[in-house]
Amino acid sequence: MLNFFIPRRYAPSRAPFIGSASAGIPLDPESPFATQPHVPIPLGFRRHGMFVVQADGDSMTLPDGSGITHGSLVLVHGRDVLTERGHCYAFRLDDGTLVLKRLNLYQGRPALHSDNPAYGPLLLDAGIRNLGRVYAYNVAGRGWVSSGYRGL
Fold first, then answer.
1. CA 113, 133, 129: angle at the middle one, nearest 5?
2. Of 7, 49, 73, 91, which has the fewest beta carbons less than 10 angstroms from its beta carbon?
3. Per-position pLDDT tens, the chain of length 152
4. SS3 for 44?
């Protein structure tokens, strides 16, 4: 009997930290996104093409104070760009601004939504580029939490 060795696919244990992403009012596109040191990826979230951004703002903070808060580290899978309603993604707007938003419909059209009801939706247009799905976030170093699906 022949035994075949099938190697496990290697997934990196660290992701590059690329800068800040607006989770509120879009950031100034002039701000630099210089590559920083790498951030460890938790075992359950390891995939090729991961990167980390830091949330700047409170638009993805839920009314009870949970969710992606200002200063949270956000783990994005850059190869998971198949958009599904209810999931959170990192998007690059027309002007180069990087934002974190949840995809859903607004008046029958695809739109970027905030988890914080104080922020209105932004309609999706051809100039907005999906950079990847948000897999997890880490608030104040307390451990990684799956971003999960959230219907609006």
1. 70
2. 7
3. 555 554 556 677 777 777 777 776 554 444 433 445 788 888 888 888 889 999 998 999 988 888 899 989 999 999 888 888 889 999 999 888 899 999 999 998 999 999 999 999 999 889 999 999 999 998 877 888 888 766 55
4. helix
Amino acid at 152: L
The label of the residue with tokens 């580029």 reads: 129
Query: The whole model's pTM is what?
Result: 0.78
Tokens 């090729």 identify what position?
Answer: 48
Rounded to the nearest angstrom, the gap between the alpha carbon of residue 108 and the centroid of all alpha carbons in its chain is 24
- Which amino acid type is present at position 87? H
Residue linked to tokens 């969710």: 67
Count Cβ atoms within 10 A of the Cβ of residue 98 and give its class: 0-12 exposed, 13-18 middle, 19 or more buried.
buried
Count how many residues are written for the chain: 152
φ, ψ (nearest 5 deg) of residue 109: -115, 150
Nearest Cα residue to 112 out of 82, 88, 139: 88
Residue at token pair 């990167």: 51
Most distant CA pair in the chain: distance in Å?
65
Question: What single-letter amino acid sits at 128?
Answer: I
Is residue 67 within 8 Å of residue 58, measured between CB atoms? no
